[in-house]
Batch of 3 targets.
Target 1
Amino acid sequence: MSQKEINPTMERPILSVPGVPLFIGFLIAIAISIYLFVSGGGAAYFATAAVLVGLGVIGMGGFYSIQPNEAVAILLFGAYQGTDRATGLRWVWPWLTRKKISMRVRNVTSDKLKVNDKDGNPIEIAANVVWRVQDSAQALFDVDDYERFSRIEIDTALRDIAAHYAYDHAAEGELTLRGHAEEVATLLGERLNQRLAVGGMRVDEARISHLAYATEIAGAMLKRQQAQAILAARQLIVMGAVGMVESALEQLSARGVVTLDEERKAQMVSNLLVVLCADREAQPVVNTGTLY
């Protein structure tokens, strides 16, 4: 079974005639018919003039123009005959129906959708999609309104992506919407191409243009992120402070500046850690007496 038999509306080319020579020819025919009418040469002249006028008027109905990145689907009494993509002035038989469609690249930004992510958290998400019509016949005849169809499918694919991935803080190795934007965009583009293929459309690029927690939980999630940031910062500060204390003790011991027993070392470590890890500036206390 051929591909044409599987999908009879798959785009196929059709031959059309360059319109400029025919346009000039029809103008000449009309001019000749006017001359024959005016000259008054008898019944034969009038009959010839009438035929030329009829052919000129009917023939003029077969002209159409195509701009770059446009296509015209040709139909004969409702049956698809083919698609003309040749630019300029073209001509086909006047009784053929012509449907024009744009093949240009289109940029669509979806509405902000409120959905639940994989963890059940309500989030707001939107996408920017760059797409174009690839098969004019499928776009015109396989879907009712290909532009409206594309918008619905973009929203559907976006909801599906958001429901299968967490906004953030997923298990190790799992994708997240916020942390793996490139991978999520690639998946979105692949799913959109699968969904829009039935309408003869192709996605060139898909990107997440808006991603945020829903209003009702945004405050709580902000506090959670702040707490996580504070904890991460504290961990880094503690690691640095331990390294500094260790280095200080090693240098004091190596240079023989002072000899400390284990109790004094513990006290010194405690004091240094307090100073280094405190979120405020420490107030120094100067000891003017003896060490012990």
Note: Residues 227-277 form one domain.
Target 2
Amino acid sequence: MSLIRGTGLRKTFGDFVAVDGIDIEVAAGESFGFLGPNGAGKTSTMRMIGATSPVSGGELRVFGMDPATHASAIKARLGVVPQTDALDEELRVRENLLVYGRYFGLSREQVRARTGPLLEFAQLTEKTDAVVESLSGGMKRRLTIARALINEPSLLLLDEPTTGLDPQARHVLWDRLFRLKRDGVTLVLTTHYMDEAEQLCDRLVVMDRGRIVAEGSPRSLIAQHASREVLELRFDAADHAERVADVAGIAERVEVLADRLLLYVHDGDGALETVAARGVHPLSALVRRASLEDVFLRLTGRSLVE
């Protein structure tokens, strides 16, 4: 069953096109990601799915319903984790869940019954009576997720869920999301972290300037748009473009960066042996597996877009 289906989906703000005719489909139980640079249209798409921003064009169905006519019914079945936590920082942790649960028409008894298990899930049991303002960034993020689960949603929307968190907090949060997926909650998230997309997403789309430029599982995207391995070579050169001729014909593709050459190859160690056999001696060499970041940068470019 498709929980989300969008066809020719568009979102415009005056003359600016934020989302430019994309097709998306998300199945029940799937962990689906929107990957892209800032301004790619990820958040605009999520807001349309969450029935908080009207569709400008195309067709969108969430739980089989049209957000334009059934927004309340859709929101009742959603959990939403926005980019910013927007918690009531003057209230205690448990009070945040109580207030949010009441928005969904839950009784105080229902909220109390759900608060304990949710705070345990979020590893916040010891902070039940703490004022939210005193929590760390990672704790606040976990509380935001716990709050989004108070209505027991079947679909959870997460917009940049780990932005600003330290590595330890990110991994704790990933573990919580793995547990939700295991329990049957469908996850839809936006991110610009490559490792996060590889860790969390069964399938994803890469967006750039409002359009989808690639779609598939992380592994299939790497196989389609990158080589098996990457050989990184650093030379004592003011301009590494001057050394491209030294490695001509060795790689499927060579990318010139300010401080190194990237050789996209099937066998990194074999390519390095070929480089040495030519009498070429870089300052340093690194062989690594191709990653989703290689795919991302090839599809969206390395230039900063504001």
Note: Residues 2-217 form a domain with the Rossmann fold fold (CATH 3.40.50.300).
Target 3
Amino acid sequence: MTDLSARSDAALAGTDTLLSVDGLCAGYGASQVLDHVSFSMGVESVCIIGRNGMGKTTLCNALTGLLRPTAGTVTLGDDRLDGATPEKIAKRGMSYVPQGRRLFPSLTVDEHLAMLAKGTRGKRWTPDAVYELFPRLAQRRRNGGAELSGGEQQMLAVGRALLLNGRIVVMDEPSEGLAPTIVDSLIDAVHRLVDEGVAVLVVEQNLRAATEIAERQLVMVSGRLDAETTATELRADPELQRRYLGVDA
């Protein structure tokens, strides 16, 4: 485990920086939640771990424009994103899979994807590509959002985000409430995205999901990214698991 500020440039050797977050602060009213959060990542998968109430969802909201930062910068490639609207941030290449999925109960799977299908022709991610990634969705394409299982809803939330054909996907607690087999599908999908050149930033509390999704693990404590560890170190150290995830080994 290393102090995040001491992470050497060598750790990103061979990986150009795609997302850079520097001194990000955000909160709600007079309550500051994020306290000068800084990190960078390339085209890779990275997990942000931590106990409940540490600011992980607030970080997702600040990155994706749902919450306006009070200080700091967010840069994706050459584009400054901090302070931009969610729509502009999505157009510049950052898509979001929110906690709770936020689907429309009465719309079918086809209708959810059709809302974002315009302009996807000729691009990597189209509705057909989403159905190829998640065959179960193809079988349920005429079912409404409320008729899907939790795992199917999560597949649809991920597929919807992919149709933006962005450079990075931010996922907030994607394994929450999912059966182990569905978690396996999610993990495989993340690895496939990275292999195809899409960065994935995942907030996760599930130890198995976090350590199989990404080797880089950034630890959030009280609104700060306090340390960086690896999936290998985390799996091998029950004390780290208890300290950062509340896992009772």
Note: Residues 5-14 have pLDDT under 50 and may be disordered.
